[in-house]
Amino acid sequence: xxxxxxxxxxxxxxxxxxxxxxxxxxxxxxxxxxxxxxxxxxxxxxxxxxxxxxxxx
Length: 57
What we know:
Layout lengths: L1 H13 L1 H11 L3 H27 L1
């Protein structure tokens, strides 16, 4: 699981400019764009937390 997260983070870092332009075109409102990014980040954190809880249960 952790290697998937690392690969996704590296890909997001490498392609951050095109991703930013894509998000800006999809959600031109800055507040809405920040809300969408926050939701995506929160979802990733919840999945990682759930996997850690299951690992140590």
